[in-house]
């Protein structure tokens, strides 16, 4: 009667004993390995010195691999310098190492970082650095405050693995961050992160300018807009187009891509997404937690994430902040270009319905209010310049930087027989939109271009730019021509 439960008891006892044996065996295995495992990263000894390799985005330094912990010397120079926010718009950036985001720093657990922060003599302001990977007051800020023409030095032991943000923390802190003073420091675990084929550095930031998005000239920082969190630009790697066209990051079919993604803020949280990809793995918030099969990952201001995915099919994959107006209207858009063999099983690439056009409503229906009176372009050169700016803001997301279009989705404007055949038809397309099948350079497209909310002069300039670029017919389009087409309908 009791035999059944008894047997079960004996069984479980045996199971327990064998489990214990296994545990003992496993521990002795580790012991036999004679590898000292430090329970406390602070105890990891360093031997020898090494100058840290620093890189500007989208590049990252060489992986740490199996190297031992070292005294790692970081030489970081702060430079205040004018740069381009987008075509025709410049901005005075404050930078760690000359780039926004600042130089990427790559360390491993146990490293002892000797940080040299140099403030260039031509700079106007004092700065400092707060690294989120530092255990200590202010993350280093209190020890690194440095006036122009001076250098500050401090050191710290790298204790926790992960991907960390660093930033300037000099008052007014928000303003220093808003001007581009942030970057990433990676702390690899002992033995390094698993090997991948491609690694890139991407960091989002929001910018606040006196003028509105696209207003030309040198734009000063706007404190009121920054306080109101009313960003004019939201960008990857410091400017509109830092990761598009020729600046796109690249990979080959079959490769694994790892993106170190940070968000400098100062204000906005990023809904980071790659159109047409699924993240196989995300190291959530840059820490140890690995989430799998993720579509969009949240990257807080002052936070980071490591995302990884294998690219299976060729094409252009668009990196966005999926708060989507930021992507298509404020600049938070980058590109990963993948080359290699198509795989029709994974993606047919031929079906005509269902083209994903998130930019459809975004750019066109933006309520602009009354159009601002803009300076009129007089010369062809001016028309080209203004037209190019409109192109890069309005048309480029679909027709691409060199007018090459995207196969099966957006027809090319470069050497377009369709464009060159009839100027009035082109004006009508921009004015009123276009649907239905068309053939451009022998390829058929059957899609939708919504009407573009632009003034007559803007349309004249952008079309003049298109006609005078990329091997087209050099047609000059005037505002009067656009006006007469507009009134025609
Ligand atoms: Cu600063």
Automatic annotation (TrEMBL):
The keyword NADP does not apply. CDD domains: CuRO_1_CuNIR, CuRO_2_CuNIR. The keyword Iron applies. Keywords: Copper, Heme, Iron, Metal-binding, Oxidoreductase, Repeat, Signal. One of its GO terms (molecular function) is electron transfer activity. Cu cation binds at residues 127, 132, 167-168, 176, 181, 322. Its cofactor is Cu(+); Cu(2+). Belongs to the multicopper oxidase family. This is Copper-containing nitrite reductase.
